[in-house]
Amino acid sequence: MTERERQARKPLHDVHGIVPLDKPAGLTSNAALQRTKRLFRARKAGHTGSLDPLATGMLPICFGEATKVSAFLLDAEKTYRVVCRLGVATDTGDADGKVLERRTDPAPGREAVAAAAAGLLGEIEQVPPMYSALKRGGRRLYELARKGVTVDREARRVRVSALEVERYEWPELEFVVACSKGTYVRSLVIDLAAALGTLGHVTALRRLAVGPFREADLISLDALEALAAEGESALDGALLPIDRALADWPSATLEAEAARRFAHGQPVAAEASTPAGRVRVYAADRLLGIGEVTVDRQLLPRRVLSADRDAVD
Q1: pTM for the whole thing?
Q2: Which class does domain 249-312 fall in?
Q3: Which architecture characterizes domain 3-75+213-243 according to CATH?
Q4: Residues noted as catalytic
Q5: Which of the residues 125, 183, 189, 276 could staple to 158 if both were Cys, CB 3.0 to 4.6 A apart?
């Protein structure tokens, strides 16, 4: 029996934590998730926001109890480095698609590019692309697009908090953008090109950050495989604690009895110093879960981590 076969026969086990995976190009987000999950022999895992196969970079993988905070990473601001080609449109909005049209317009000047980029800052209306995972009538839009079907899509409001042009050498443009959940970078490139009176599509895309996770946190599949070869403890060392996903949130620490009640889904009194809204909740140095402080100073359990619930009983 080969080493790979022996690893595959090991029983699944409970893993809790987050791996900020550096997804490689050419792999779907789900394929990257499944490969990572197999390495850890984890019972439960999920990712926090898909990347197109063309894209690389930050794909946080949440294991076990960390899946209870994954929704907050889905809602977090994201940062991308984008390379696009101007003057050419494709059916998918990226380099994986079929060329639909080419333009030979004069190259826009740098001042025009800067002005077009500035025009996309703030809250904007964006029409999702047909090649997206949104559903219409129970079917993914990309499934309809592959059959040559185009349907109307409602524009939705997204937020672009920063867009910095790093390089412009016609027809190639490179920029870094920080944007809200639901922003389609391909649509952003198309809108930017339209503001310049031309066409455009994405040729390279790298996600640099998701919420509190930054590029320096990234770990590749190759690195994880090397750790797996060293043994389970070495691989588990790549896991980041669950509360890293909530690093920017305020926190509340409970004494033993309040911690026990909170862990069993009961509201407790909030300290006067704890701000209203969502908070990380701890018993000593253990994360119990996520709570919400109401205006009448009650701390309500919103997500309780069962892995630590037993520790306070």
Answers
A1: 0.89
A2: mainly beta
A3: 2-Layer Sandwich (3.30)
A4: 52
A5: 183
